[in-house]
Amino acid sequence: MSAPGCVFCGIVAGTEPGSVVHTEDDVVAFLTTAPINPGHVLVVPRAHAVGLDDLSAATGEALWRLTHRVAVALRRDPAWSEGVNLHLSDGAAAGQHVFHLHMHVIPRFSGDGLRVIDDRPERPPRAALDDVATRLREVLAAEGRARGAARRRRSPST
User: Fold this and answer.
1) Per-residue pLDDT at 57
2) Residue ranges in the chain whose pLDDT is less than 70
3) In whole angstroms, what is the distance from residue 127 CA to residue 81 CA?
4) For the domain 7-108, what is the CATH code?
């Protein structure tokens, strides 16, 4: 399924220009038009998904597998990169500008000018970190229980 006016849906469909690197059933990799360095790839789901919550687990796995393959290929040859950053922004507050989920695979070189820094002077205390970890564990456990209940409802009784 595609979204009208979505440039990434157009690239996936072949109706918009794109320098495609690799295609699979559920995901496509193509070069960004605003590369940090040559070989800067975007990996996107074929079906329009605005954010992570719109992505099925299977498509998320396919997205990660292709992201991994591209990153490993870039790292195999030092002419392509000395390192790799993977980046995904989910939502405007996270800096997402194109609202079709996409993973950046960014080849990096020492001194290339891209800075990924956290220069905040203070770190949270361990107790605050532990509180957040507890809250996230509870959310993940509740989601796991809900998925299990949904699977039990779908499976035939024996």
Assistant:
1) 94
2) 157-158
3) 39
4) 3.30.428.10
